[in-house]
Amino acid sequence: MILATVKTSLQGLGAFLIYFGVSLGLLVIFGLIHSIITPYKEIELIKKENTAAALSFMGALIGFAIPLGSAVAHSAGLLDMIIWALIAMGAQILVYFCVKAVFPHLPADIPHNHVPKGIVLGAISIIVGYLNAVCMIY
Predict the structure, then answer these.
(1) Which member of 6, 45, 56, 135 has the greatest number of CB atoms within 10 A?
(2) How do residues 63-112 score in pLDDT, each as one tens digit?
(3) How many alpha carbons fall within 13 Å on the CB side of residue 134?
(4) CA nearest neighbour of 95 among 136, 137, 67, 54
């Protein structure tokens, strides 16, 4: 009885590994794209203990991971999940440019560790990510 339950539970392991692997890959791709579109080197700034860079970058990653999870949960298949993940990625990239338009000095402020700007950028990324995720209903 227990072995049958374990066997039944593990039937989804292959799909889990595929979706988890693809999701991690998409998260890495998003992180790389985000690092490219920002004029400052976030990882280097974070290594130098720049709090503003850490807050903005982690907020962006969380802001993408939330709708990515929704895409996994609501997709009709792997390709559908990837399509919605790319839509979420586009929304998060758009968020950066919108915040940058409101705060034109943002590219100079983050490297100078202006923490409030990092908080604003990170928080807006999370907020938009959440809204993006809840709008993925079909």
Answers:
(1) 56
(2) 999 999 999 999 999 999 999 999 999 999 999 999 999 999 988 999 99
(3) 5
(4) 67
